[in-house]
Amino acid sequence: MMIHAYRSCFRNLRISLARNYASSSKLVDVSRDDKTGVSIISMSRAPVNGLNRELLVELERSLKEAQDERRRGVVLTSSLSNVFSGGLDIMEMFKKDAESMSKFWSALQDLYLTLYGLSVPIAAAINGSSPAGGCFLAMCCEYRVFVDGKHTIGLNETNLGIVAPKWFQNVMIATIGHRNAELALLRGTLFSPQEALRIGLVDELATDKADAISKCENYIASFARIPGTGRYLTKLGVRQELIQWMHDNREVDVNSFVTFAQTPEVQKNLELYVKSLKKR
Amino acid sequence: MMIHAYRSCFRNLRISLARNYASSSKLVDVSRDDKTGVSIISMSRAPVNGLNRELLVELERSLKEAQDERRRGVVLTSSLSNVFSGGLDIMEMFKKDAESMSKFWSALQDLYLTLYGLSVPIAAAINGSSPAGGCFLAMCCEYRVFVDGKHTIGLNETNLGIVAPKWFQNVMIATIGHRNAELALLRGTLFSPQEALRIGLVDELATDKADAISKCENYIASFARIPGTGRYLTKLGVRQELIQWMHDNREVDVNSFVTFAQTPEVQKNLELYVKSLKKR
Amino acid sequence: MMIHAYRSCFRNLRISLARNYASSSKLVDVSRDDKTGVSIISMSRAPVNGLNRELLVELERSLKEAQDERRRGVVLTSSLSNVFSGGLDIMEMFKKDAESMSKFWSALQDLYLTLYGLSVPIAAAINGSSPAGGCFLAMCCEYRVFVDGKHTIGLNETNLGIVAPKWFQNVMIATIGHRNAELALLRGTLFSPQEALRIGLVDELATDKADAISKCENYIASFARIPGTGRYLTKLGVRQELIQWMHDNREVDVNSFVTFAQTPEVQKNLELYVKSLKKR
């Protein structure tokens, strides 16, 4: 019994250590290039960079760090070979209690406010699939480079029987215009690289991840001679309405998410989706 | 004298009967295709589908019915051979009293709220001219297919010395962007099918009415696998600001319409227009 | 010593006279074509039509005059050969006291409200460089014709370490859309004529100034048959939100300008810029 307790304790300890290790250095990998002054922030939560609460918190922490360190800029990318981010981790809303879901959603709001209003230039090197929340993260950056090939990008929430939150929708409207956004949101369109370029959802295509990162670094380098404060205030000006919307609606938004996610219809759709994932 | 009175009375009766008949079954013709689940709602008020109060009410009733019956979708079109809709019936604002004009305008607002926020997919098969209010109805749908040829579409109110209401303007801005909408509204531009396609005022061209309806049905069918509730909430999200604007401004909007329509300058412009119509 | 004082006084007098002369008849030159009914308003403050308070006031006065005289329309252009306007006169914010800066900024707001809401058609014949405030004036018109060649146009404020005011930003967003405006504002992009045309920042190119004015006159003539009141109310409708914003934010906007302009960082950036101008 003592031995068993010891083992159990030891095992918990190992898990706990593993988790700490992961949260400090593996959910998000940060690489600083001191020649260019750019930080490369890579999401590293296999298998698909599902945005669970831990990853959201870790990502926001890394962004704030780059901001506090006054880096020249940030490239947001993924350590995984075929996916930028698969979006919000469905398991954070499937059969969860209200408090847990509230905390998850608040972390998403925090990340949004930090990412969308980041003081330093930030570009997304989209090196794989980027549905739903993955597309949203990319749209919150200032510039998007998509690796050409078979992967797609878009807010495809309607396909899962759920709804892209109002602020996801608004960021898409700001990116590709009202008409294109409406149609894309209703259809849950996942755009090919060529289509995404044509519609303005991404700014450039790249041949591979290295090329995408290099093009993002070029974007950041284009601001080398532009004073940072004026640039930052300009960004806040252009993005002011959407940022203010979130400050004005945080609580309402959390509650409407939790209420919606708990409806039987949504839970049923999520269940079907989770089952389909397991079959793959 | 008696005979004359009798004849006059009889003639009025016939007109009245014709009107009742029209209002109950002919102002709007609804055809349900049970294979596709689509309702085809056709405006049928000769000669130009002028949007008088009766037609507005009847149209809204048909849309609500399709919504309540949870149809797969709706195609909005016209039973007339050369016109989708000629827009608001000028006779509803020419030499009318304030109460009558208020009721007319309220009916237009009601139709807008139902049409712009319709829960099921709706596409316009624009099979003829679509000026002013006709263009507005089409823009409130989710998708527009225009029969190629000599007909035109646009908010041409300034040409008549009147003003497209703020909400007509806003729906146009949402459809083709602020810059294009401003120029089109100032000029009262009526776009050819090719121009309308290029500027995004319509989404596809068709060879004839049947082709237009078929393309609208394809649009509706593209949502076959998309759960309805999430899709509907997404639509309400994207259209929220404009819908909210109307809820917040119904009374002000009615009053400003009535006040504007009653100004001598507008009445004079309407009179010139009515005379020019009679000369044709 | 007496002689020196006398000379100094005489020199000041000459400068003062020159200034008065300029402010009454030469800062802005107005030419009325009675055949077309168009007023051509030309900014004439050498060397670069720097928008100091005097020029702002004079320009607004000329616009109001054209409006009161119910001219067919206005062409805004420059009397200088290589510049439309170099934008706000930096000397109005460099080492100035708060009161002086407030008056300057209020004059800019007044001009904006008159120009952006002008009741008669107005087009800009951009016959030279048009950075910052110069670009802003052009964007406030209804139509822009840019003389093709080596000159550029854009809101390049971030390059000077300053910030295009929120309302400059909003007018740019209304002109070229949110995404294009954000990127242009962050980068402080100065667009070539071809690029400006492609992105929609101008509507036509011209071979020279006479051609630009002629194309602006064609724009104005296109409204010959459109009643003025409905056209004007339509314009106010489309531009309502931005005009209302200014009415709601005049004081806050003045204060935030003065506060920002007085920060050491901005004053330092302005000093560097002023020095670089003197070296040319």
UniProtKB/TrEMBL annotation, chains A, B, C:
| Swiss-Prot/TrEMBL catalytic activity | (3Z)-dodecenoyl-CoA = (2E)-dodecenoyl-CoA; (2E)-tetradecenoyl-CoA = (3Z)-tetradecenoyl-CoA; (3Z)-decenoyl-CoA = (2E)-decenoyl-CoA; (3Z)-octenoyl-CoA = (2E)-octenoyl-CoA
Give the pathway: Lipid metabolism; fatty acid beta-oxidation
> Which keywords describe this protein according to UniProt?
Acetylation, Fatty acid metabolism, Isomerase, Lipid metabolism, Mitochondrion, Transit peptide
What interactions and quaternary structure are annotated? Homotrimer.
Where is this protein chiefly located?
mitochondrion
The task this protein performs is described as:
Key enzyme of fatty acid beta-oxidation. Able to isomerize both 3-cis (3Z) and 3-trans (3E) double bonds into the 2-trans (2E) form in a range of enoyl-CoA species, with a preference for (3Z)-enoyl-CoAs over (3E)-enoyl-CoAs. The catalytic efficiency of this enzyme is not affected by the fatty acyl chain length.
Entry's InterPro entries? Answer: ClpP/crotonase-like_dom_sf, Enoyl-CoA_hydra/iso
Organism for this UniProt entry = Cephus cinctus (Wheat stem sawfly)
The protein in question is named Enoyl-CoA delta isomerase 1, mitochondrial
* PANTHER family per the UniProt record, alphabetical: ENOYL-COA DELTA ISOMERASE 1, MITOCHONDRIAL, ENOYL-COA HYDRATASE-RELATED
One MF annotation (Gene Ontology) recorded for this entry: delta(3)-delta(2)-enoyl-CoA isomerase activity
Its localization reads: Mitochondrion matrix
Q: Which GO terms describe its biological process?
A: fatty acid beta-oxidation
Q: One Pfam annotation, family name?
A: ECH_1
Mind naming one GO cellular-component term on file for this protein? mitochondrial matrix
